[in-house]
Design goal:
alpha/beta, 17 strands, globular, seven-stranded mixed beta sheet, binds thymidine-5'-phosphate, six-stranded mixed beta sheet, 14 helices
Length: about 400
């Protein structure tokens, strides 16, 4: 049974940034009521209303994995590990984005799947076979006819964006060799709950996995987790290594049991944990608004750093507009001069000059805090301060 624990109000599409023209025209954005559920049987966290996939992933998807040094490094280290440990003959990535991971592999041994045309074009132009399509059984059938030996399937921050999870794993099972391995990484529900990072919820993130819930989904498809790595990316993610149950060549590491125990001990199997998270979220909202208002009362300037999809959730849930946050800075070329969905705060292309006379910076990309603090040493040295809402709203300078 699905039980609601969080109501984040009316939210626009998190990555649907408005162009200058659309803002001028006063474009009527689509808003969706963002409600989050806990399934008492499967322990899976999901959104109650799912937005049509084509509305979110199309030819103008702005998010590029290669924009962050942190992500590039994480993918480089993983590539080395995959080559050394599994040495795949044929590697398939579901959600290959702009190729941040596959570019570390020989293009004869890699297949990318990427439904966003603008992104698929990038990997194709570099000689990587890329299917510009959504991952489903139809595509799996097509691929199976052409490639018989797919022995490694990888997917980062994508599976949780696909509504039909059973079809996802049925399709994977269809193309994967008998002893093939699946590697999936996604934000960790445990970290999200611990940090009250309610901004992990937006229309694209239909699910937020725990090892507990993923185990239940995989069971139906005769797959099992045999290894888990905790990652720092996206505010705390889990990388799951998965095999067929019948494959006895790979043994199950003790860290799988440990993670499951950690999640159960923290209460991820109980509704009451999520009800409390709902209460903490409301408190987080009130505290953040209070901090921003207090700063404004002193006539100080606040801007945002990292025009993230996560920030869209915060702005719209907390009703923050350009009276509180003047503008956002972001390095992504596709976000330049656009406006944040819903609250329409302007996004300027990152330039150190844009933060020079600013008193406070709201960390929209709090998950890149270390990278950003390193870059903005001078701002901090000159007395500048950051505002974060994770794990609770506060002003920080280290
Ligand atoms: P994400 O949190 O969804 O991965 O998005 C991170 C966003 O933050 C992305 O739009 C790029 C932006 N960003 C900057 O503008 N400057 C930076 O130094 C970093 C690390 C990220």
């Amino acid at each position: 049974m699905n039980k609601k624990f969080l109501d984040l109000g009316l939210q626009p599409l998190a990555n649907r940034y408005l162009t200058i023209k659309e803002k001028k025209m006063n474009l009527k954005e689509e808003f969706y009521h963002l409600l989050v559920n806990f399934n008492t049987k499967t322990k899976l966290i999901s959104l109650s209303k799912k937005v049509e996939i084509k509305k979110m992933f199309n030819s103008s998807y702005p998010y590029k994995s290669s924009m962050s040094k942190t992500m590039l490094k994480s993918f480089r280290i993983l590539s080395e590990k995959i080559k050394k440990k599994f040495n795949p003959k044929m590697f398939l990535e579901i959600g290959s984005n702009d190729g941040a991971l596959i570019k570390n592999f020989n293009n004869k041994k890699v297949i990318g799947i990427e439904p966003c045309k603008n992104l698929a074009k990038i990997t194709r132009s570099k000689g990587y076979k890329t299917y510009c399509d959504y991952w489903n059984l139809k595509l799996a059938n097509k691929i199976k006819k052409k490639y018989k030996k797919i022995d490694l399937i990888y997917s980062a921050n994508t599976i949780t964006h696909i509504e039909k999870l059973d079809e996802v794993f049925k399709s994977i099972s269809h193309v994967l060799t008998k002893n093939g391995v699946i590697i999936i990484e996604d934000p960790s529900l445990l970290e999200c709950i611990k940090k009250t990072s309610y901004d992990q919820f937006y229309n694209e993130h239909i699910y937020l996995f725990s090892a507990l819930a993923l185990k239940n989904i995989l069971k139906k498809h005769n797959f099992e987790i045999f290894d888990i790595t905790n990652l720092k990316t996206h505010g705390g993610s889990l990388r799951y290594f998965i095999k067929r149950k019948k494959n006895k060549n790979l043994s199950i590491k003790s860290n799988v049991k440990k993670q499951l125990k950690k999640e159960i001990d923290y209460g991820l199997g109980k509704f009451s944990t999520f009800r409390k998270f709902g209460e903490s979220t409301l408190k987080s909202k009130k505290d953040l608004i209070r901090i921003l208002n207090n700063i404004k009362k002193k006539n100080k300037r606040i801007i945002g750093y990292g025009a993230t999809a996560k920030a869209t959730t915060i702005l719209n849930y907390c009703n923050i507009d350009n009276h509180l946050i003047e503008y956002f800075v972001d390095t992504t070329p596709d976000k330049k001069n656009k406006h944040m969905p819903g609250k329409k705060i302007k996004i300027l292309s990152y330039d150190p000059k844009l933060i020079k006379n600013i008193d406070y910076i709201f960390l929209g990309a709090w998950n890149f805090k270390d990278e950003i603090f390193k870059k903005e040493r001078l701002f901090i040295k000159n007395g500048g301060k950051f505002i974060t809402h994770v794990p609770s709203p506060k002003i920080i300078n280290k």
